[in-house]
Amino acid sequence: MADGFKAIADTSSVLAGLDKLTGPIATHLARSMAVAGGQVLRDEAKLLAPVDSGLLQSAIYLAFKEAKSNDEGVTYSVTWNAKKAPHGHLLEFGHWQYYAAYIGPDGEWHTNKAHPLANPRWVPAHPFLRPALDSAGPRAQAAMIERGRQRLPELLAGEMEDAKLGAS
User: Fold this and answer.
1) Of 3, 21, 60, 114, most Cβ neighbours within 10 A?
2) Which domain of life does the UniProt lineage start with (predicted)?
């Protein structure tokens, strides 16, 4: 599976007043905000992905990374399912072509390993993840902030309700 890419957004001015939040509320808020930003980046990556068969485009997804998340922060990644689209890294980063390639009767590309190229050639990248971050980064950050503005009152109202129930 691909590692995707890492986006770091400076939301310090927005989060300055939220430092007092701890526990489940902080985690729920962080996850909601991260998902909102991640969805923007995922959708942009899908728009930028080459569409020949649509396989790569349909394999791009947003995933929560539990092993890389803790009380200090949550981690999500925008990547592609390498089982559905094993060629994703070739498009994102470019690659050397060592063998002749052809379109078979099935309409798919095939590599003919019986016919190595006399001069291997570099196939340039058609990146989709990195440009998605460049073009949609500010929109992702805005989506995160907007989601935080929506979600925080909901979470605080739920905590107030829980406190009322606990006091009765």
Assistant:
1) 60
2) Bacteria
Distance CA 168, CA 152 (A): 25
122 vs 114: CA distance, rounded Å: 19
Cβ neighbours around 107 below 10 Å, total: 7
Domain extents in the chain = 12-85+127-167
Please tell me the predicted confidence (pLDDT) of residue 166.
56
* Residue 140 near residue 38 (C-beta atoms within 8 A): yes
Task: Give pTM, 2 decimals.
Answer: 0.78
pLDDT digits (tens, 9 = 90+) for 83-139: 999 999 999 999 999 999 999 999 888 999 999 999 999 999 999 999 999 999 999
Q: What is the DSSP letter of 70?
A: B
Q: Which amino acid is at 74?
A: V
Q: Which of 81, 68, 65 is nearest to 2 (CA)?
A: 81
* Closest by Cα among 128, 145, 126, 2 to 65: 2
